[in-house]
Amino acid sequence: MSDLEKAARDAVDAAANTRQVEMIAAFLAAQQLLNAQQPQQPAPVQRQEFNATKWLVIGGVVVSVGLVGALFAVAVAIGAVSVGILALVLRSMWADVQKGR
User: Fold this and answer.
1) Tens-digit pLDDT profile for the chain (101 aa)?
2) Cα(33)–Cα(29) distance, integer angstroms
3) How far is CA 92 from CA 77, 85, 98, in A?
């Protein structure tokens, strides 16, 4: 095999190797473009841990408001009954005053 044939074969191998390197570089560039275009996945939303203290406070407030509301309703009912009895007593007294004339 002569030096000329060796040089020709080396030139063909180098050309093929250069073509392979160009293909690999093009493939890597295309991959980088695709990765840049793909939207990133949003970070998962972290759930808060169950806070028993918070719910105990909310329950205590609800119960307290309920008790205050019930006491207010009882006070209104007692006041309404008192006004009704007062109206009956005054009516009776007015009737007695009218008879005495």
Assistant:
1) 677 677 777 777 777 777 777 778 887 888 887 777 666 677 888 888 888 999 999 999 999 999 999 999 999 999 999 999 999 999 999 999 998 76
2) 6
3) 23, 11, 10
DSSP label of 18 = H
Distance set, CA 21 to CA 12, 17, 18, 29 (Å): 14, 6, 5, 12
Token representation of residue 52: 């028993």
DSSP tag of 38: S
Amino acid identity of residue 71, one-letter, is: L
Q: Which two tokens stand for residue 75?
A: 């006070």
Q: Can you give the pTM of this predicted structure? A: 0.46
State CA 101 to chain mean position distance.
Answer: 78
What dihedral do alpha carbons 19, 23, 25, 28 form, nearest 10°? -170
